[in-house]
Amino acid sequence: MHAPILDSHGRTASYMRISVTDRCNLRCTYCAGEGMEFIPHPKILRYEEILDIIALAEGFGVEKVRFTGGEPFVRLGFADFMIAAANRFPNVDMCVTTNGTLIGEHIEHLAKSGVRRMNISLDTMNRKKYEQITGRDKFDIVRENIDRCLDAGMTVKVNSVAMRGVNDDELPEFLEYAASREIDFRFIEFMPVGTETGWKDDLVWTADDILTEAQQLADLRPSVNGPKHGHGPARMYDIVNGKGRLGLISSYSNHFCATCNRLRITSDGFLRTCLFSDKVYKLRPALRNEKLGLDFVERIIRSAMRSKPIGYDLLRKMSANHGHDVCHTRMASIGG
Fold it and tell me: Which of 65, 13, 25, 39 has the alpha carbon at shortest distance from 330?
């Protein structure tokens, strides 16, 4: 066990998000869109390299690893890799964020192998609107796979990007869906990440506005007892007389930068310490250099953490510069 990693603001690094691919079978308007250029395969981290990074991270105090994409299940062998990672690191909380379109054939195997938690993206309750947002007609498949995950005994969180003029007219349907299933239905504010997402301030459907509207539609009470592994930055509310809960993640309007514990590893092996910054640190060359290896990778991570920014400061800079000089990289390339 190495010494925990602290940044200059006293924050620890206990949560790592690892993108296993920048490829996706959807083309969501706020993420990738059509015409995206993908990273060449030789530059993508190998599964063995990802396992090495997790081993290193566990050593300096990372307790949770989330696999992301793109869409993780697009990558050949990902389901088996995730099971192997969970078995190798039983003390690390392993989970995955997926669009839910490709997991059907893997659900039973994952559940029986001990992978018990799934985050699934669903931005609308309307099939036609789903196709407009994602560019693909996969709505029924996602809905079916959410129910199959629940039937398999998994804990399911459903994530929805909250967007004015896109899905803000569906709150009654969202609440009804959450109340009818044992899920956490979480709204995530639309964030200014990437230059081709069409982001504008007036498109942000804020967490406070969602809560105000939701309280007019349902009896909501702040959750006292969260799930075993917590709910991170989400504010959770029980839906009285319902099975599920409502969650609000105010990543734009009411930041949680002071307690940020995240590190992000992109699929091509770059470390990002803040979602709102394009500053990256190259890990892959060190991983593939026999003379450098993991010891040097750890030195890079510790050095990067010392200059980890406060994301909200970058957002204020963005506002002052009318949207310039923050994060221009597409969300699909970062890994969320």
Answer: 39
Percentage above 70 pLDDT, the chain: 83
What ranges in the chain are assigned the alpha helix state H?
Answer: 47-59, 78-88, 107-112, 127-134, 139-151, 171-179, 207-215, 284-287, 293-306, 311-320, 331-334
**Which value, to the nearest 10 degrees, does the dihedral of the CA atoms of residues 259, 82, 3, 291 take?**
-130
Q: Which pLDDT score is estimated for 324?
A: 47
Q: Check whether 227 has a pLDDT greater than 70.
A: no
Query: Does residue 215 register a pLDDT over 70?
Result: yes
Question: How many angstroms separate the CA atoms of 234 and 124, rounded?
Answer: 19
Out of 3.20.20.70, 3.40.50.620, 3.30.70.250, 1.20.59.20, the CATH code matching 15-334 is 3.20.20.70
pLDDT given for residue 335 in this prediction? 62
Reply yes or no on whether the pLDDT at 12 is more than 80.
yes
Close Cβ partners of 178 (under 8 Å, ≥ 6 residues apart): 158, 184, 185, 239, 242, 244, 245, 246
Cα dihedral sign for 282, 266, 278, 235?
negative
Partner residues linked to 189 by β-bridges = 162
Helices 293-306, 47-59: axis angle to 10 degrees equals: 60
The residue extents of the domains of the chain are: 15-334
Mind spelling out the 3-state secondary structure of 52-110? Answer: HHHHHHHHCCCCEEEEECCCHHHCCCHHHHHHHHHHHCCCCEEEEEECCCCCHHHHHHH
Name 200's Cβ contacts closer than 8 Å, sequence gap at least 6. none
